Amino acid sequence: MKARDLGIPFEGTTGKNNAITDVDGVLVGHSNIVEGDGELIVGEGPIRTGVTSIFPSGKNLNDVFASYFSYNGNGEMTGTIWIEESGLLKGPICITNTHSVGIVRDAIIKWYLRNNLAKHRIFWSIPVVAETYDGLLNDINGFHVKEMTVFEALDSACDGHVLEGNVGGGTGMICHQFKGGIGTSSRVIDEKHGSYSVGVLVQANYGLREHLTIAGVPVGSELKNECKPKFKFEKNTDQETGSIIVIVATNAPLLPIQLKRLAKRVPAGLARVGGYGGNYSGDIFLAFSTANMSEDGKNKEEKARSITTLDNKHISALFKAVAEATEEAIINALINAETMEGINGNIVYSLPHDKLKEVMEKYNRLNSMDK
User: Fold this and answer.
1) Which sequence positions are flagged as catalytic?
2) Nearest CA to 283 among 78, 134, 67, 70?
3) Which of 27, 86, 201, 291 has the fewest CB atoms within 10 Å, counting from its CB?
4) What is the reported pTM?
């Protein structure tokens, strides 16, 4: 389901799938582990976690131009130093829980070897792995993400429809004190500015209830007493302590410095929903372009190659698309996430669709055809 299916109005024109996979070549895969109930026994469970993979240009090690932006750095995204230095991204991006970054990074390299992608005699890799914290629902210190979990996320990656909500790295995540997780959306730029596609995928695990805003409506304030999370041990709820990872893809021919500018527009969409990058929030964003791709190992003896880049006078349309798609991707994560009970009987409830529609109607912000 998409938020638009409930009649929630959003700006902009989406691609066919309203997903990051509307950018040709981009693949997404998930692997989930949901096991056990009851009291937390570290190393045994309950387990509510997983891995999400995003391939920029198919299952290969082709270089694509990329850049990243840290809105608030209380988090991790490996590989960003080399991306900043070289402007290049090679291979998939994975997103998981905070304490599984290391094994996911190592497993990606093993997956390359298993699939004969490390074709050069001297092979090195600095994989990109990002995280958010799922320790309120998941036995995060039990280290349940294993190599096979990562392999499954990578092997299952495909184009087309993308599962959202309690899937992959988003399995145990919380957003604005409702159940959160993975969400995605896309935009197609008008012909005047090149008809390019922009896709966004988020792992949403941030935010206070009171700040949640949907299509301009103060939904969090209206639903402040609805479906409140239940935690065995009191959780400090007066400050934002979560995180959000956002991956932006486009087929527009952009240089790394232009892609950094795209990544810097993610907060414009985040702010529309009610995220502000609190002190304890890890808000890290990466943008890449599938144009000007350099095929792995091809023409490696060439001293120079030609590239195409978009004139900056047309880039504002992409900025707007990033903001719009980020906003909608977060709401799609909330719309698709389902109520989850995790460690110690902790419960985080899904955003109730019926109550949401009532609030949107109250503010006359529900498309009439879907009421």
Assistant:
1) 243, 281, 283
2) 70
3) 86
4) 0.96
